[in-house]
Automatic annotation (TrEMBL):
GO MF, any single term: transaminase activity
Catalytic reaction(s) noted: an aromatic L-alpha-amino acid + 2-oxoglutarate = an aromatic oxo-acid + L-glutamate
Protein's organism: Microbacterium terricola
Protein name: Aromatic amino acid aminotransferase
Domain Aminotransferase class I/classII large: 31-350
Cofactor: pyridoxal 5'-phosphate
Function: Aminotransferase that catalyzes the conversion of aromatic amino acids and 2-oxoglutarate into corresponding aromatic oxo acids and L-glutamate.
Lineage, opening ranks: Bacteria, Bacillati, Actinomycetota, Actinomycetes, Micrococcales
Matching HAMAP family: HisC_aminotrans_2, Phe_aminotrans_2
Alphabetical keyword list: Aminotransferase, Pyridoxal phosphate, Transferase
Length: 361
């Protein structure tokens, strides 16, 4: 007899050792849920109507979400086969890592960054190589280039970085990708791109036109700025053959017709959504400035969230917010991420943050 837990089927040891995905906690009726970087606005009426008009749910959806792919291709000045749509951009991350990396291969990413990255490497059987952020919570792009070996198949870069907030500039990114070997895939995860107000920030789509880098895939999502997190729809833009590899490893038909219809309707409602994005970005700036004034060293915040570098106090700090009716996301030993939510939550965040900071040693 061994002490190993009894598993009725033989699960790969690497998978058995991996914790399953844990969602940001749901909030009670009287609390604000600021733990999952969601959009606090209700869906637009046109989006609901479009979803409801996608009634032929007895039929499978269009496998490539062709109408949306065409629409995004027109928008970004690429061909439809240079756009790939899937059930959330996290699905595309998984597809790309599976397509490129297996046992012995290396997946390089910054840390701390989006929690899914290390797990995706493990699932693929690849080796995960985490490159620490700089002291001001930015990607250390030089160190990331240095971490690339003959075994590296993918480098994932996240801007603005979830959960810490800073962007990578266009100049920094261009210098970086010029130093990455052309057979290494660079995934530029721009899940929060629409919230960015820093004019120097990288816009990956600008590198996909004339001066394209064939090893670059830019990831975006309808979950954040477009407020469709519950529908699960995201997209990638890049070289058609690279995206074919993602289409091959992906589960077919996972983008539903209501999700595609809602995404198209969101693109139709761009002006209204832009106004909402502006409101969230202004709220974010107010929050970040208020937190700094209270004594927190909040790094540059360019997504729809702010980062409190609470270090070893992260869990206690999050508990204090929780007790005050704000569900936030602690990263044990590191910090607390607070989503920019409803207007009424801003004052509450600032009040609790100001009182908590006084209790810290
Ligand atoms: N990338 C980053 C950096 C994220 O923070 C998230 C969501 N938290 C995703 C990708 C995945 O988003 P989705 O699957 O909802 O498109």
């Amino acid at each position: 007899m061994t002490d190993a837990p009894q598993i009725p089927v033989r699960v790969r040891p690497a998978i058995a050792a991996l914790p399953p995905y844990r969602q940001g906690r749901q909030a009670g009726a009287d609390a604000f849920k600021l733990s999952s970087n969601e959009n606090p606005f209700d869906p637009l009426p046109g989006v609901i109507a479009a979803m409801q008009s996608a009634t032929a749910v007895n039929r499978y959806p269009d496998a490539g979400a062709a109408r949306l792919a065409q629409r995004l291709a027109d928008r970004f000045g690429v061909e439809p086969d240079e756009v790939h749509i899937a059930a959330g951009s996290v699905s595309i991350l998984s597809q790309l890592v599976l397509a490129t990396s297996g046992p012995g291969d290396e997946v390089v990413y910054a840390w701390r960054s989006f929690e899914a990255y290390p797990g995706l490497a493990v699932v693929a059987g690849a080796t995960s190589v985490a490159v620490p952020l700089t002291a001001d919570f930015r990607h250390d792009l030089d160190a990331m280039v240095e971490a690339i070996t003959d075994r590296t198949r993918v480098v994932i870069v996240c801007t603005p970085n979830n959960p810490t907030g800073p962007i990578i500039t266009q100049a920094e990114f261009e210098q970086f990708i010029d130093r990455v070997p052309g057979d290494v895939l660079v995934i530029l995860d721009e899940a929060y791109a629409e919230f960015v107000t820093d004019p120097d920030a990288v816009d990956g789509m600008r590198l996909l036109g004339g001066t394209r880098r064939d090893n670059l895939v830019v990831l975006r999502t309808f979950s954040k700025a477009y407020g469709l997190a519950g529908l699960r729809i995201g997209y990638a833009v890049g070289h058609a053959r690279v995206l074919d590899a993602a289409r091959t490893t992906g589960i077919p038909l996972s983008v539903t017709a209501p999700a595609e219809a809602a995404a198209l309707a969101s693109l139709d409602a761009e002006a209204e959504l832009r106004e909402r994005i502006t409101v969230i970005a202004e709220r974010r700036d107010r929050l970040a400035e208020g937190l700094r004034a209270a004594g927190w060293s909040v790094p540059e915040a360019q997504g729809n969230f702010v980062w409190l570098p609470a270090g070893e106090h992260a869990v206690d700090v999050a508990a204090a917010f929780d007790a005050g009716g704000l569900v936030v996301r602690p990263f044990a030993g590191d910090g607390v991420r607070i989503t920019v939510g409803e207007e009424e939550s801003v004052e509450k965040v600032l009040r609790i943050a100001a009182s908590v900071v006084k209790d810290l040693p």
